Fold this protein.
Amino acid sequence: MIRTFISIYARGLFCFALVIAIAACVAPKRRVIINPELDQWDAKRWRYVNLFPPAHGYLEETEFDHIEFRKPYEIGEREYAILTDPRGDIDRSKGYDASEYTVTPDLDLIQHPAHNIQITWIRHATFLIQLGEKYQILVDPVLAGIDGMAGSLMKYADTMELFADPPLIVQNLPLFDESENPGENKITIVAISHDHHDHLNYNTLKELPANTHYYVPRGLQTEFPSRYSNVTGMDWYTKDTLKELTIHFLPANHRSGRSMYESNQTLWGGWLFEWNNYRVYFAGDTGYSAVFKDMRQRYGEFDICLMPISAYFQRQWHFTPEDAIQASADLGCKTLIPWGWGTWVMSFEHILEPPRRLQYAFDKMQPDNMELRILKMGETYTRDAILEK
């Protein structure tokens, strides 16, 4: 009996190893840009760790937490079955109408760029960054329903309720047309900050052109299905160059994982796009730490910073609006553009508190030489940077 059990067990192990070996052979080989001087893999816990410890913790408050940013008609209470605030729940969406914070995109401007710098906020963390009228950079595109098991379960949840449809569809983006002269073709890339469902959406990626070049955090390149043929994984503080565009992957204070069975198996971070000595930075989800001063020391001042400003009950992993201002000041940002609000109810604060609190904190803190631009969903920010620098 024991021998039979051992024999069956051994054959089972052999079959499992064979399946793994076959899968490894057929898996596509993806390029990975490694930083040999930086190893953030914790071998004991079998996961990546943040480069710097977070400056703040869970439910840690600031002076602005005790200010009422809701208007009288937005004040109400509601009990939530999931993601309930231990300090007492409020109705987080009362009085909110997404149409008041959405504009019809200027599709002609988007499809035929007329400025050296064009940045369109689509919703949540999704941006279209257009540089030099040639480079089309789509960041964290989520223009379809949440994919996988999470998307199936969301309809039963009382949080992550969707309040803002995207103001445009994938086919509106300037990603598909190709010139007969290859030298005239625009260069299209997609940059993913981390694998959480509100930042990585395969339902959207399926609609993108087959030749799209994906840049992802290290480890995430192995999770992309084989149909995505052009995927590059990157370590923190590494870079890649596409003609006049340099793409840097930078650290953040956050985490990764798309299910309860995985945690921090892939990296997370932000992207710095450098063109013609002009720097556009997308922070990804992050809490505040010394990492921003470290980036400033390495790269100098940034020009435009796209910063998250919501879900700050988890302050170790997400900015308060004040943290976003401080991090922008650390980086020497000339323009701060916020994101992360207005799409879903996914935190404890009212859906409109983040932009109002940001404006209030900005007026109080008065950071030097910094412009605050709060965009509406679908709105495009433009600069003719090459003429100014």
User: Anything to note?
Assistant: DSSP finds eight helices and 19 strands in the chain. The domain at 42-388 is CATH 3.60.15.10 (Metallo-beta-lactamase; Chain A).
